[in-house]
Amino acid sequence: MTRERLTLPEQNVREYAHELACKLACEQLAGITDIEEQCRKSGAKYISSKKAVILDHLNRSYKIGFPDGEVTLADSEEAIPIRDKILLLDYFTRARGTPSSGKTITYKELHDGINYFPTFSKRTIQPLVTFFGDKPEQLLKTAEILGGHKASYGDVAVTIDAFPRVPVTLVLWRGDAEFSTEGSILFDSTIADYLTNDDIHTLCENIAWRLVRLLKTGGDTPGKR
Question: Does the N terminus or the C terminus of the chain have fewer Cβ atoms within 10 A?
Answer without folding.
Answer: N
